[in-house]
Amino acid sequence: MWDVIIIGAGVVGCSAAKYLSQYKLSVLVLEKGSDVCSGASKGNSAMVHAGYDPDPGTKKAIYNILGNAMFDELCSELDVPFNRSGTMIFATSDEEMCEVNRLKELGDRNGVSGVRVLSQQELREKEPNMGKDVVGALYAPTGGIVCPYSLVIAMAENAAINGVEFKTFTEAVGFERLNDGWKVLTNNGDFETKLIFNCAGIHADKLNNMVSEDKFHITPRYGSHILLDREYIKYVDTTICQTPTPLLTGGHTKGMGIMPSVDGTVILGCDAEDYDDSDDVACTTRSLKKIVDYFNKVWRYLPIGNFADRFPMDGIINSYGGLRAHSDRDDFIIGEVLDAPGFINAAGIESPGLTAGPAIGSHLAQLAVKKLYAEKNEHYKPGRNALRPFRNMTKEEQSEAIRKNPDYGKIVCRCELVTEAEVRDAIHRPLGARTINAVKMRTRAGMGRCQGGFCSSRVLQILCEELNLDPLEVTQSGGDSYVLLEKACCSRCKEE
Length: 496
Description:
By secondary structure, the chain is of the alpha+beta class. It folds into three domains: 1-82 and 142-217 and 328-386, FAD/NAD(P)-binding domain, CATH 3.50.50; 83-141 and 219-324, D-Amino Acid Oxidase, Chain A, domain 2 (2-Layer Sandwich), CATH 3.30.9.10; 392-473, Arc Repressor Mutant, subunit A, CATH 1.10.10. It is built from 14 helices and 24 strands. The longest helix is centred in the last third of the chain and has 20 residues, at 353-372. The protein is globular and about 65 Å long.
């Protein structure tokens, strides 16, 4: 019997796994996707929110502030890129300035450090290239940006190094109450445990409602994002957003924003639309048009507005979508279910869920420690022994790396300067890559201007070499997403 089973390997589930691994506990993480970070945790704006937005006293506000404060130390330990670049909410009218002042008041009540309202003159001093019609802004210096999937993968690797087990392609489909815990029924066997952490994101309501009379409902709230090429990052230092917008279906969106990513691209988005399908994250023409239309309208306000008359369509290199888990309680649902002892929810984790994730995971771990009287794991190993990206090395360091390992001298992805050494390492790391997208998330091979047009075939070949796979077995992202449908060297081969 396991001490703890975590359902869902997103930011909360992997954070809980990391902090649980600091104790003498047996922990199993179940993930229905092909890899960790297969859901909402990878399809978001990558913002680490300062905490000026949630209503004071809510779980969103409490865990936002706690989580934000954890990022410097956490990302340093795990070698995850993090930039505390600050967040700016701009206003172009007196009405929007009223909203800016309201957010300042919320920020003060939530205990956000350094948040302040900038007059037009102060804004000009900080961002001289902002459009002339911007009348003021809210500035929150503790806001930041992180690579969400790098963070989740890093926490999962750290947990795995310290004894946590992970099972992908494993979906929880039911539960049975035992005298001393629970049996989790899955499509991949059944598992007994003393405690269950429900970190299932969009599907957390279904799991809760199987075991409790205290029902709640999660609405999948879709949002899409656009990626701009690296040439625009030089104009954007701070995450810049519009003032928040109420939604007719409840809650609100923080509005469209322009985010300078830690990897050198620029993220634009996102919109908000309630869906019925809990698994549909495909970008739609309608959704992308909302983003393009919005930035066509406001491009003149932004710091790069002076460098282009209209939104640069030729700068787009990709788009992606994600689903937020919006609960009908409009707040995070965290804690043990009263009529299902040992079943602990971390549900409704929408924005600022990425920011709050480490704090929620730490809290869940402490609940288990108290319930199970767990002792500290004196053999806990911090970090994850990450391989340093070739692109981040100096010329001298690159030469030395190639001398020690010739695979560093073989470039797989030209756009992102990813080497064979890094791709092979990604495959053999704890929770190693098994698909082209898994390699992509761990190395950035395929995330540049050509979006894998040059490197995907080589990544596929390396996967075959390292895992002894037939090329027809390699998938883009697990399941039936096979990259190749047949092999044929030439017309003669086909005939034979």
